[in-house]
Amino acid sequence: MRLVSIDTALFDKYRKDPEILTKSKRPYVLVIRLKYKEKNYDFAVPIRSNIPAAVPKNQYFALPPRPTTRSKNRHGLHYIKMFPVTKQYLRRYRTEGNQFATLIQNIIDKNTKTIVDECQAYLDAYAKGQRPQYATDIDYLILRLFSDDQF
User: Fold this and answer.
1) Torsion from C-alpha of 92, 14, 139, 45, nearest 10 degrees
2) What is the pLDDT of residues 5-60, one digit of tens each?
3) Residue 133: helix, strand or coil by DSSP?
4) C-alpha angle 91-137-151 in degrees, rounded to nearest 5
């Protein structure tokens, strides 16, 4: 798994899903080959600075807080905001000279199995109809990802 940025062209395709996080320069964790409804896809999981404290722990992987993380909120990988992605939309996320980004990458590297297992568990539950409030619409996003039309 690695930190990536996402090309804005993908967000243009996904614009009708109001739950997609499109903040420019946001880092995402690329999780490859997760199974969703019997097919394998790569997913991008956003790293968020302010996950509300009320969010159930199975919906995110906690990371050390950033300076922008508000009191009582969490910083981490927010599983319910993940979306399918293909290599053509991946962009390099630069970590050189950024101690915090390097720390995050090290934590992700040490917890790869946990993150993959938790992402897969989320997708399995989602496929069975357990879609949390504020989650991205994975079925719609898969259709959009592999569609050639603009809208």
Assistant:
1) 30
2) 999 999 999 999 999 998 878 999 999 999 999 999 999 999 999 999 999 999 99
3) coil
4) 70
- Residues found in the chain: 151
Tokens 């599983």, residue located: 79
Q: Which tokens sit at 93?
A: 């996320």
Q: Tokens 């409804």 appear where?
A: 37
Residue burial 17-33, b: 16+ Cβ < 10 Å; e: rest: beebbeeeeebbbbbee
Place of tokens 């390097």: 102
CB 36 within 8 A of CB 138: yes
Q: Show contacts of 113-116: CB within 8 Å, 24+ apart.
A: 114/61, 115/1, 115/29, 115/31, 115/45, 115/61, 115/77, 116/1, 116/31, 116/34
The pLDDT of 123-131, averaged and rounded, is 97
> What mean pLDDT, rounded, does the chain reach?
94
Euclidean distance between the first and final Cα of the chain, in Å? Answer: 30
Residue type for 81, please? K
Does 96 score more than 90 pLDDT?
A: no
